[in-house]
TrEMBL record, chain A:
This is Spore germination protein. The keyword Transport applies. InterPro entries: Spore_GerAB (IPR004761). Belongs to the amino acid-polyamine-organocation (APC) superfamily. Spore germination protein (SGP) (TC 2.A.3.9) family. GO terms for cellular component: membrane. The keyword Membrane applies. It is found in: Membrane. It is a multi-pass membrane protein. It holds the Pfam family Spore_permease. It comes from Ruminiclostridium papyrosolvens C7. The chain crosses the membrane at residues 12-33, 39-61, 73-96, 116-136, 148-167, 216-239, 270-294, 306-325, 337-357.
From TrEMBL, chain B:
NCBIfam families: spore_ger_x_C. Residues 253-419 form the Spore germination GerAC-like C-terminal domain. This is Germination protein Ger(X)C. It comes from Ruminiclostridium papyrosolvens C7. PROSITE patterns: PROKAR_LIPOPROTEIN (PS51257). It holds the Pfam family Spore_GerAC_N. Keywords: Germination, Lipoprotein, Membrane, Palmitate, Signal.
Length: 370, 435
């Protein structure tokens, strides 16, 4: 079995929180404000709540099979064949996720910073780091996340704080946005934006079992939820719901307009620094998880020989969208609005099957935990 | 050996990437940074674009030595060299195409990264400027912090007069001149972000600084033999201030927009009261006539005591807006020498000031509301809290109802301090000789 190392509750929380909250750098905030207007900031709380409910349901699955990760559970409940198919669905999804996230990063960096640099050069440079991250493994990615967590969150807080001269609190009205129905509907589907929390179910053996799993999951959703709420609020207050629906990246735009005096302006370099690190961790983890899941399904003990193959697949996914429009209308919508159907749906389906057929972890499972 | 070769390959790869061997690497020195961009209505194409950028000569920052505007040699004048900068104009269909065309006669890439101001001519502003704004909003080189201005007359002429008389750095000079808004309270300072936001906002409409050229013709040179009257009002528009010397450029008043079209202007006085309502008034001198001594003035240094308190309610579907202003003042002069520093007299001064400000604020709001039919005060933000959803608010169409709104103005004034003098002593022998 693949050896992934061990890390603590805090490191796991930092890792998952970073991956979820990194969406604030991208087009997510714009889409949320476009769909729900002034209600975007509390719509994401609905998403948090839905995610926590689904996550608790998934934790029931994990509780029934102590000591087993989700790949093992799929095989125990649905049999080896269907288990492998379900596992491959997740592996494929994370390749898609890594490729699409990388493409989103590429499109943004081309829009804001490097418009004439060949995309392939950016992809190669980025993928080189991602490959190194995958090569050194999960534990190292978690350690990197724990080191980067505070600089990234302090950076976001700094940008949001320094832009305060643009804020008009009254821009959050009309408080209902485009209506409560639209808010709840969007909130429900946008819970997909928090579904990276499922990664914990695949690496449960690195984080000391179900109790930690539950704690880390809920903390991660809540902390990243707070980050998204504040980013949304600040962007609505700074740009109104109208202009905030126009910007490619609202947070980047906010960083670009900070101006205090002749000596204190143009501080988006802070943004660039934290944005790139957060993106690397996000894509790096998704890429690693795709390989890790594959290895677990086929009982491959060493993930390193698969890195180049998966890197090629990710590269292919990155090149799939024609441009920013296609990426935003297809890939990002799939990832942040509909992925919950697979990510939460499959484990819950497995839970139902296991309950119906009375399947649960055996004594050996318990022993392996003890 | 294999390890060493791997390291060499890696190093070469990273040297290639890290040294920025890409098409996006640009040396700072390879670019000409536009500091001011002006857009006028074109003659044979849509617009006439004027761009000013420093030449990095004579101190490197756009020194005012040399040409000094119109004073340079004819060759310099022809090439548009103005006080250490180059001013160039071109007719084109769009702003960015114009800049692209200018590259054919410029030795360096013209960059908008450090553009301090975007100026539209009044004529163009009346026709709508969103076509040009959206270019700037979309283009990555513009940072959306440039100041937006509307020029009385041609933007090209205004930029031709853009030079520094104090200090050598023209960029610093431009930024500091805009910062004068905080010292005088006679013109607003609006950045691209807030201006553009207001053109597409359902809450509030856009406004910008009103600017122009003063040819020093308003200053009468001859005394007509009469004692001049005391004029405390400052109903000046750009180019109308009676002055001589200093820069010809003048920023005074406010350009008022409805959507992206200019609908009218506010003079210096009106701008001061407008800024008080929108909490942009930092401080400024207001001179009031001493009622007890007609012809004598009492100048006050005004500043906001608190942020303006605005409430919007609805009487059926008609909005009722209550504006409460809290203004603090320091006496900075009493020409009559009257002892206004006593408790009861201070109350009189408070009353005088309150009446004056209240009256002018009311007139200013009414002018914008009735004559221009636009809400540059942002009352829509307050009204929005009375609606549950965006659809309801947009359907109500705030601006169309604002025209009929009932406005109540209340000003609280507090003369806090009396400058460096605690008491005024009268001049003793003004009318008779001392014995």
């Amino acid at each position: 079995m693949i050896k992934e190392g061990k890390f603590g509750t805090a490191e796991a929380t930092y890792l998952i929180t970073l991956v979820i909250a990194s969406k604030t750098f991208y087009t997510s905030i714009r889409v949320m404000i476009k769909n729900t207007g002034t209600a975007a900031w509390y719509m994401t709380l609905v998403s948090c709540l839905v995610s926590i409910i689904f996550f608790l349901l998934i934790s029931l699955v994990m509780k029934r099979f102590p000591g087993k990760n989700l790949v093992d559970i799929f095989q125990l409940v649905t049999g080896r064949f269907f288990g492998k198919i379900l596992t491959l669905v997740f592996s494929a999804y994370y390749v898609y996720y890594a490729g699409s996230s990388l493409r989103e990063f590429l499109e943004m960096i081309k829009a804001y910073n490097l418009p004439y640099t060949p995309p392939s050069l950016i992809i190669f440079a980025f993928m080189a780091v991602v490959i190194i991250l995958a090569y050194i493994g999960l534990e190292s990615i978690a350690r990197l996340a724990s080191v980067s967590f505070y600089p990234i969150f302090i950076g976001i807080a700094l940008i949001l704080f320094l832009a305060y001269p643009y804020y008009n609190v009254r821009a959050i009205f009309p408080i209902g946005g485009y209506g409560i129905e639209e808010t709840i509907k969007s909130g429900f589907f946008r819970s997909s934006a928090y579904d990276e929390v499922i990664i914990l179910a695949f690496i449960i053996n690195s984080i000391d079992g179900v109790k930690t799993f539950k704690k880390v999951g809920i903390y991660s959703i809540l902390i990243s939820g707070v980050a998204v709420v504040f980013t949304c609020l600040c962007n609505i207050m700074a740009f109104d719901y109208t202009m905030a629906s126009e910007n490619v990246s609202d947070l980047f735009q906010l960083a670009r307009v900070i101006y205090f005096s002749r000596f204190f302006q143009r501080i988006e370099s802070i943004f660039l620094f934290i944005w790139i690190i957060a993106s690397l961790i996000t894509v790096g983890l998704a890429f690693y998880i795709a390989i890790s899941i594959f290895c677990k399904a086929f009982k491959i003990s060493n993930h390193r020989p698969l890195i180049l193959q998966f890197a090629f697949l990710t590269f292919m996914v990155t090149l799939l969208p024609e441009g920013l429009i296609e990426l935003a209308k297809i890939n990002i919508v799939v990832m942040r609005e509909y992925s919950m159907i697979i990510i939460y749906g499959i484990p819950i389906l497995v839970l139902i099957i296991s309950v119906i057929f009375g399947k649960r972890g055996d004594r050996q499972c318990l022993k392996s935990v003890k | 050996m294999l390890k060493v070769s791997k390291i060499i390959v890696l190093l070469i790869t990273f040297v290639y990437i890290l040294t920025g061997c890409t098409t996006d690497s640009k040396n700072i020195d390879d670019q000409a940074y536009a500091i001011m961009v002006g857009i006028d209505k074109g003659v044979e194409n849509k617009i006439r674009l004027t761009v000013q950028f420093p030449t990095y000569k004579g101190g490197g920052n756009g020194s005012s030595s040399g040409a000094g505007g119109g004073g340079g040699g004819s060759e310099e004048k022809e090439s548009g060299q103005i006080g250490g900068t180059v001013v160039t104009s071109i007719e084109c269909s769009t702003v960015l195409e114009g800049i692209n065309l200018l590259s054919t006669s410029t030795t360096r890439h013209i960059s908008l990264f450090h553009c301090k101001a975007i100026i539209f001519s009044e004529q163009l502003a009346y026709e709508g400027i969103n076509f040009y704004l959206s270019d700037f909003a979309r283009f990555r080189e513009t940072r959306r912090i440039a100041t937006i201005g509307v020029c009385r007359g041609k933007a090209e002429d205004y930029i031709m007069e853009n030079k520094t008389l104090i200090g050598e750095n023209i960029s610093k000079s431009i930024e500091l001149s805009f910062a004068q808004s905080k010292n005088s309270g006679l013109f607003p300072l609006v950045g691209f972000t807030n201006f553009y936001k207001s053109t597409i906002s359902p809450y509030s409409q856009a406004y910008s600084v009103y600017m122009g050229i003063n040819n020093f013709k308003k200053l009468e040179n001859e005394n007509k033999g009469q004692n001049p009257p005391l004029k405390t009002d400052e109903q000046y528009y750009p180019g109308e201030v009676p002055k001589k010397g200093n820069k010809k450029q003048e920023m005074i008043g406010t350009a008022v927009f409805n959507g992206d079209k200019l609908t009218g202007t506010l003079n210096a006085d009106e701008t001061r009261y407008f800024l008080m309502i929108v909490n942009e008034f930092k401080h400024g001198i207001l001179t009031v006539e001493d009622k007890k001594h007609p012809g004598m003035a009492i100048p006050f240094d005004l500043r906001p005591g608190r942020k303006s308190d605005i409430k919007v309610r609805f009487d059926k579907s008609t909005p009722v807006i209550d504006i409460n202003l809290n203004i603090e003042a320091d006496i900075v002069g009493i020409q009559s020498g009257m002892h206004y520093e006593s408790l009861d007299k201070i109350k009189e001064l408070n009353g005088l000031l309150k009446g004056c400000i209240e009256d002018e604020v009311r007139k200013t709001v009414e002018k914008v509301q009735k004559q221009m039919g636009t809400d540059i005060f942002g009352f829509g933000y307050y009204a929005a809290s009375k609606f549950l959803t965006i659809d309801d608010f947009e359907k109500y169409n705030w601006v169309s109802h604002f025209i009929d709104a009932k406005i109540n103005v209340s000003v609280y004034t507090n003369v806090r301090r009396t400058g460096l003098m605690a008491e005024s002593m009268p001049v003793r022998y003004r009318t008779k000789t001392a014995k």
